[in-house]
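[step 3/7] inverse_fold.run input=structure_tokens len=234
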């Protein structure tokens, strides 16, 4: 009622049956505004710690995340990545909508970064369509590094469902997984209008942090090139 998020392409989301909603990730508020534009529940995975707290605080935290459409990562199969995949399969197996951020972490500068192949593997193993999503304006409402920003009306754009049934049985082929993931990221880029950078967001964020630290300390902001003739001469 306060932010009144706008919606485009909601007709591409099926009224029933499972689907993967693959979205860009500009802000921690993305998982809140995207589901608000749909009549169906969208489920995301969250750290199990959010559901295991003790006392009143733990109960309130568990109630909030459960009510907001979050489920804990199922770590019974191993690490966090496998646990997230297992949790996602359970959600899709119930015929529900599952939300995922292929970039793996929030963009620190508003650009769109390389997607991780987990979304492709999930699509092939569950045989469900992938709907690309672009959420815009959330980085104004809740900018990276801040809890609150400025008022704006977020916009959520849903693209046409992507069918990858032509790759059935190839979920263990890393080249196929990369091709599918890149196709998904291209569609998200078309919807969002973001500049695409072909490196992982976590690596780009770390580089930016190191560069800023070097600038504050008065050091070099760019790595030296050992092939530079000037360096050789010195």
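[step 3/7] decode complete -> sequence:
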């Amino acid at each position: 009622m306060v932010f009144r998020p706008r919606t485009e392409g909601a007709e591409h989301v099926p009224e029933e049956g499972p689907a993967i909603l693959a979205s860009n990730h500009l802000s921690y508020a993305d998982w809140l505004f995207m589901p608000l534009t749909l009549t169906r529940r969208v489920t995301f995975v969250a750290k199990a710690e959010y559901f295991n707290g003790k006392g009143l605080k733990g109960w309130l935290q568990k109630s909030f995340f459960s009510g907001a459409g979050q489920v804990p990562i199922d770590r019974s199969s191993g690490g966090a990545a496998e646990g997230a995949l297992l949790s996602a399969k359970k959600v899709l197996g119930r015929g529900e909508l599952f939300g995922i951020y292929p970039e793996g972490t929030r963009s620190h500068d508003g650009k769109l970064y390389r997607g991780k192949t987990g979304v492709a593997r999930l699509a092939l193993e569950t045989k469900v369509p992938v709907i690309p999503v672009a959420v815009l304006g959330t980085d104004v409402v809740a900018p990276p590094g801040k809890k609150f920003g400025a008022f704006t009306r977020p916009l959520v754009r849903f693209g046409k469902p992507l069918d990858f049934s032509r790759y059935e049985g190839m979920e263990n082929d890393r080249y196929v997984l990369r091709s599918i993931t890149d196709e998904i990221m291209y569609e998200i880029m078309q919807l969002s209008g973001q500049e695409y950078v072909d490196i992982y967001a976590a690596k780009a964020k770390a580089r930016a942090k190191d560069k800023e630290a070097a600038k504050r300390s008065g050091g070099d902001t760019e790595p030296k090139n050992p092939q530079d003739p000037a360096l050789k001469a010195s």
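[step 4/7] annotate
The longest helix spans residues 174-192.
The helical segments are 30-36, 55-67, 80-93, 118-126, 138-141, 174-192, 201-217, 229-233.
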